[in-house]
Design a protein that fits this description.
eight-stranded mixed beta sheet, acyltransferase, Octanoyltransferase, lipoyl(octanoyl) transferase activity, BirA Bifunctional Protein, domain 2, alpha/beta
């Protein structure tokens, strides 16, 4: 059975605003509610997952830390990082959580291949890596068969804040980004390509651009 998906391109959005909107969207949707993908960026923020340990926050400094309800440990979001929130009825799609994670990783790997970058996933450490350095992080929450939270791809950003934490709970993990691998990069082009990859890998019949922001879900 095929379904359509709506995509919102939201620009720069405060993390707490987006998080609360995701929760509201997920809690209020019904069996016939359409799936959505939100593509956006955040101002600088550290987010600590449900299993997060305080020792992985080394010296956050002036960057705020938000305790959130996704899986995983601590990560960083900031301008120049492409964030994708996947608000999907996973049960209706007929896939399990592990399969969903694999499809998201494959979307990122295929996107990077379009730029000539060879990347891979690690079963023991969700995310996408290039020569051992992490370029994309994943963190999901499933509630009543519906997913929220999603992925973060480092495109063209300041990587310094990652040195203030143990990224995803791994001490000494090197982070990388697309700009450092290929040179100057068009952020909007990367967004368009990721959008197409997610729609294809998740098996949607077609996509539609949704107008407006997420104010209705706040």
């Amino acid at each position: 059975m095929t379904h359509d998906v709506g995509v919102r391109e939201l620009g720069l959005v405060d993390y707490r605003t987006a998080w609360q909107a995701m929760q509201h969207f997920t809690n209020s949707r019904g069996p016939d509610s359409g799936d959505e993908i939100w593509l956006l960026q955040h101002p600088s923020v550290f987010t600590q997952g449900q299993a997060g340990k305080a020792e992985h926050l080394l010296f956050p400094g002036d960057i705020p830390v938000v305790q959130v309800d996704r899986g995983g440990q601590v990560t960083y979001h900031g301008p120049g990082q492409l964030v994708g929130y996947l608000l999907l009825d996973v049960r209706r799609l007929g896939i399990g959580v592990r399969e969903l994670v694999s499809r998201i990783e494959r979307s990122l790997i295929d996107l990077l291949a379009e730029y000539g970058v060879e990347a891979l996933a690690k079963p023991e450490a969700p995310g996408v890596y290039v020569d051992g350095a992490k370029i994309a992080s994943l963190g999901l929450r499933i509630r009543n068969g519906r997913s929220f939270h999603g992925l973060a791809l480092n495109v063209d950003m300041d990587l310094e804040p990652f040195r203030r934490i143990n990224p995803c709970g791994y001490a000494g993990l090197t982070m990388t980004q697309l700009r450092d691998l290929i040179g100057p990069v068009d952020f909007s082009e990367v967004l368009d390509r990721l959008r197409a990859q997610l729609v294809r890998q998740l098996g949607y019949a077609q996509q539609k651009t949704l107008a407006g922001g997420i104010e209705a879900y706040e």
